[in-house]
């Protein structure tokens, strides 16, 4: 098994179990303990996990550095994005939340006349050369870590606009606690986008499910559509739940500049 395949297997297992031991991995991968330790050290240095004595634990995606978050589940994000954009029709107006899953949606938008409202600079950049898209960037207080605008000015601008769709990402989504965010300003922008839109889409892979963050956005049942790669197994699954793909975790472990 090549190094990249071992890294993928380790990250798949961590995504399922949350923690792993060197002994478990050596048996699963049929390699030496020293090889496993080298793999864990490399993945730790890349920011994908936290190495511990005798093993490793997974990192929570919202607390990863942005460069690492961008490399988590890329194929799944693309699959979800392709499913989302089948619902978009020419002439519609979209509110696009920040985050890597919604960025994938922006990149997958078909070549048709659309109006896109966003507070995320990466999404604005991705659409800036699309002549059929009328782009509205909701400015405000710049957040360099998340590469978005937030604060009262951003919220006020969004409140003056209306959209056919709000397409939202998630820090965490829980059956009882709903959609939550790790940052109060982010939660406020999300609530404004949802309130200003006729229909709502949540695009969130399985790593966001069953978790919660401090700042409430909305109930999980609020969304008319929820695209994910693995059914959450809740007692009351959202009516608009659509499971796309096989739920396989794919993480690019190559270093980025």
TrEMBL record:
Q: Which PROSITE patterns match?
A: HTH_DEOR_1, HTH_DEOR_2
Annotated HTH deoR-type domain residues = 3-58
A GO molecular function term, named singly, is: DNA-binding transcription factor activity
Q: Which Gene3D superfamilies match?
A: 3.40.50.1360, Winged helix-like DNA-binding domain superfamily/Winged helix DNA-binding domain (1.10.10.10)
Give the transmembrane ranges. none
> InterPro entries recorded for this chain?
Carb_Metab_HTH_regulators, DeoR-like_C, DeoR_HTH, NagB/RpiA_transferase-like, Tscrpt_reg_HTH_DeoR_CS, WH-like_DNA-bd_sf, WH_DNA-bd_sf
Alphabetized, the UniProt keywords read: DNA-binding, Repressor, Transcription, Transcription regulation
Q: Which domain of life is it from?
A: Bacteria
Write the protein's name.
Answer: DeoR/GlpR family transcriptional regulator of sugar metabolism
- What is the organism of origin for this protein? Silvimonas terrae
